[in-house]
Amino acid sequence: MTPRLIPPEAAPSLFQDLKVEPEEARSILRPQRDDQYGFGFSLSPYRGCGHGCRYCFVRGYPNALHGCGDWGQWVTPKLNAPELLWSQRHRLHQQSLFLSTATDPYQPIEREYRLTRACLNVLLGCPTCRVLIHTRSPLVIQDLDLLKRFGDRLSVGISIPTDDDTVRQVVEPKAPPIPSRWATVERLAKAGINVNVAATPLMAITDPTGFARRARESGVSNLWVGSLRLLKNDPFYDVLAGHCWLKVLDPDYVQGIREILEMALPAPRRKVVNAKRKAEKARQGCSSRNPSKPILLQPRQPGLFEGII
Ligand code: SF4
Known about the structure:
Elements: E1 19-20, E2 29-31, E3 41-43, E4 46-48, H1 62-65, E5 74-77, H2 81-88, E6 96-99, H3 110-113, H4 115-124, E7 130-135, H5 144-150, E8 154-159, H6 165-171, H7 178-190, E9 194-199, H8 208-218, E10 222-225, H9 236-242, H10 251-262, H11 267-284
Parallel strand pairs: 1-5, 3-6, 6-7, 7-8, 8-9, 9-10
Antiparallel strand pairs: 2-3, 4-5
Helix pairs in contact: 2-4, 4-5, 7-8, 8-10
The structure holds iron/sulfur cluster.
Iron/sulfur cluster (SF4) binds near residues 49, 51, 53 and 104.
C-alpha cells in the first residue's frame, strides 16, 4: 500500500530534467460533471505530466498553472493517493473510474513512485467498480499481473494519435515512440486485456487504412478518434502551421479518418459489444444517461474528447 519513494536527488537520469515536488493531496476522487460517458469519477495519482505533450490542454488548467515550471518539466506525486482512495472506496460502488484525466498514470516517474500501481491494488478490492486506464506508455505492462486480475471490468486505452513517429517527435517529444505503443497494445491484447486504441488528439495519419489494419491485427477491442482542442492563443497552432498540419483542425479530415478507422472493427465484434451493452441496459432498466450506470465495455474516454475534466 505504501508507495516506494525516492528522494529527488537520488532520482535516475531519466528524471534529471524533471522537477519532482511530492505533496499530500486533500482529495483523490474527482466526480465527472457530465454523465454522458458513464464515468462516475476520475483519479489522477500525479499533478503535472513528464510527457509534456505540446498540445496538452491540461497545461491551461488552474492546478497546472500553479506548477513549478513549464508544462512537462515538473510533476507532483500525490503521495497519499492510495490511502485517500482506500478511505473513499465506498463511493465507487457500481461506479466507473477513469485514470487519468489530467495526467498520464504511466508517465516515467511511475516507474519509481508506483502510485498508480498502489491505487490499482486498492481498486482490486472494489469488485463493482469498472476501471478504464488511459496512457501513452508501455510502462503499463509492468502492472500486467494486476490488470489481469480485474477481468472484464477493466480496459486499457492507448493513445496513438499518428502513424508517423517523426510527427510524434514534434508533438509529443518526451512520450514513448509509436512502435512501442503498438507493441504494448499487442501485449495487452494477447494477455486478454480489453484494449482501446485512441487516435487522440488526431494528428497527421499518412496511411489511415494501414493504421486501421494494424489496430485490427493487434487485437484491439475498439478504436476512437478525438479531435484536437486548442487553448486560446495556443502556441501549438504555430507548430501545426509550420509543419503544414492545419488539416487536423478540419472537421472533415477528422470525420474522414474516423470513418476509415471505425470500419476496421470486424462486424461480429461490434455486434457482440453492442449486444452486451443492450443486455446490460435492459438488466439495469435505465437509460444511457443515468449517472449511476456502470459501463461494461469500451467506454469513451472523458478528457480526450470534449474535455470532461
Ligand atoms: S500524456 Fe496526456 S496529460 Fe501528459 S502531457 Fe500528454 S496529453 Fe497531457
